[in-house]
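Hello K.,

You asked for the raw outputs rather than the summary table, so here they are, unedited. I folded two proteins back to back in the same session to keep the settings identical. This is the first:
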Amino acid sequence: MAATIQPDPPQGGFSFDNVNRNEIFAQKGIKCSKARKTGTTIAGIAFKDGIILGADTRASEGTFIADKNCSKIHYISPNMYCCGAGTAADTEYVTRLISSKIELHSLNTERKPRVVAALTMLKQMLFRYQGHVGAYLVLGGVDSTGPHLYTVHAHGSSDKLPYVTMGSGSLAAMAVFEDRYNFNMELDEAKQLVRDAIAAGIFNDLGSGSNVDLCVIMKDGTDYIRPFDEANKKGVRQGKYRYKRGTTAVLEEKQLTLADVDVSTHVEAMDTS
């Protein structure tokens, strides 16, 4: 009977197996993939009557603006919403999956879901993927124990704070919160504070822009205001930019026949590095 060879059990700690491989790639001129910068400003505050979440509406793809009016505040349950920063597809489908799980949990227990239940599901799922699912979330909601506000990072870590910001415009938004936040604010004052924090991210960060969306979560219901404010209004064109034929002088003119034009095709291999 042939003896079976058992593989060595995986060792803990960091793995540097690909260091030599990456150096060989670099010597051959093959570029390693780089992380793509994403841009967003999302924020949330807890105040005496509930939770207010805010987000901008610009979706960027590298240096291009892919969508001027995307929704970054995602539904979890009637008493919970979640702002997403990072990879748009990851944030959308992670929140959809957790929303489905929360609904099943609520039907099983026959109770209104708690915010900490959604937090635990998000943390456990993101930790399993070790940061490869690029979802950076601000989770807010009101349940039987009161208002709760959390941040969840892509690796699965979380924080519970009275006011939070995330995304590339988070520093500008946090400056507004640290200057003016007060837990005992009235509703209108709290909405204006979150609006000003998101607007600070819009005007001070190139990855954030367009409008300001707000979601107000209170015991008696949720109000999703989209848009709450148009921070970047499109200006009106002042002049006319059509010119009559002949305005620009023609310096040289040359006519070519079809025989003079090279119509041969050349196919190059696609760069997959």
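The second followed immediately with the same parameters:
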Amino acid sequence: AEYMGSAVTNLVEHPVPIDPPLDSVDAHLKPLMLTKREQRKLRRQNRMAREKEKQLKIRLGLVKPPEPKYKLSNMMRVLGIEAAAEPTAVELLVRKAQETRFAKHMAENESNKLTQEERAERRREKAESDLAKGVRAVVFRVEDLSHKQWRYKVRVNAEQLGLVGVVVFTQRFAVVVVEGGSQALARYKALMLRRIKWSETAHLDDAEPAGAGGAVSMSVDDGGAPQPQNRCTLIWEGDIQRPHFKSFVFEKSGTELGGRAFLEQK
């Protein structure tokens, strides 16, 4: 009791341990990064191994030997006397063989193409595997998000990458909050910070008024004419415990306090 009023005592305080928010996420070891020279060497070795295995199967009679590949550049050397005796007929034979090989190649490409449902399923599996590694969030500030093309790109790209979040519009700017996996967010960051040219479409005629999507900050050039300076800024990026949104939506709050209150509710 005599130590309660003193800030420094001889007692040792043991704080209660708190589990980290991302403790359940498994740590994955990164694969060994090979140089370009090592990658070429590895591909060359694998190619040689496959070719040796194929030649061994041909010698044992397990696989039929490939048909000779006639081309216009080698038909005289491969066919020899026959090509010298009837060059026109041999040329037609070689061209027909080339057309057959090309048609077979295109048919194999068509058979290997994925259907629209299979492509959608592959994108969904990639998004789920990326999200299983941990949930991250990114917050952007856009000075002007009034034009419909900007809103379309922001929404559609988020949906295609399997991201969720919200765009909060105020009278002065717009805040874009996006949640998802690290790989999908990296592509979305490239869209917002590099791919979309925010300043090049600032003079579009069909842009909505500033109250619907934020205002454009103005500056004065050497001639005295105002010039719009629209830009996108990365405000925050980090790990979160769980997603706070179920889809990607737009929210018009009108004021900054209203937008802050909406985000605090999430």
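The chain is about 45% helix and 15% strand.

Happy to rerun anything if the numbers look odd on your end.

Regards,
P.
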